[in-house]
């Protein structure tokens, strides 16, 4: 199965109680279709006492089964908690976006969006030089200041 097709068949289930297990999710979502895989991501800290991070993914055999599960289970109650059920989003590359270990200007997407061509850079530099070469008269705008004291009315 291609990654895109697999993503269409996978749902995100959030707001899970710590008592929820893969078996619990299997029992809750099996009425909507054949389940291929269930994942409950573990906490990032190994010292954590939690069983999972409060969310999971359920992958169905068919995309329409996933849609059916979303339509029927979103905002339902499981173990006394209201759960959020939505289409799963693709996993972000760890080198892109917020939390990345790579500077934003070094990321490929940033350069594609904000890169300035060499031709535009040269034109801007020439315009700056031309503006600096046209020196203004330092006395311009001071014509009526030759008389001391308040302005006559």
Automatic annotation (TrEMBL):
Alphabetic keyword roster: Isomerase, RNA-binding
Biased composition (Basic and acidic residues): 121-138
PROSITE patterns: RRM (PS50102)
Molecular functions (GO terms): isomerase activity; RNA binding
Annotated spans, Disordered: 121-153
Any Pfam family hit: RRM_1
Protein name according to UniProt: Peptidyl prolyl cis-trans isomerase Cyclophilin
Lineage: Eukaryota, Fungi, Dikarya, Ascomycota, Pezizomycotina
């Amino acid at each position: 199965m291609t990654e895109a097709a697999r993503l269409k068949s996978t749902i995100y289930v959030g707001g899970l109680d710590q008592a929820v297990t893969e078996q619990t999710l299997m029992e809750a979502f099996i009425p909507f279709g054949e389940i291929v895989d269930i994942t409950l991501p573990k906490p990032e800290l190994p010292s954590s006492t939690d069983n999972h991070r409060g969310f999971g993914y359920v992958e169905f055999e068919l995309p329409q089964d996933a849609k059916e599960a979303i339509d029927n289970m979103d905002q339902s109650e499981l173990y006394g908690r209201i759960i959020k059920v939505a289409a799963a989003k693709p996993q972000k590359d760890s080198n892109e976006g917020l939390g990345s270990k790579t500077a934003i200007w070094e990321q490929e997407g940033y350069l594609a969006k904000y890169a300035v061509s060499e031709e535009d850079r040269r034109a801007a530099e020439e315009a700056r030089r031309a503006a600096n070469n046209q020196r203004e008269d330092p006395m311009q705008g001071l014509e009526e200041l030759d008389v001391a004291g308040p302005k006559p009315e």
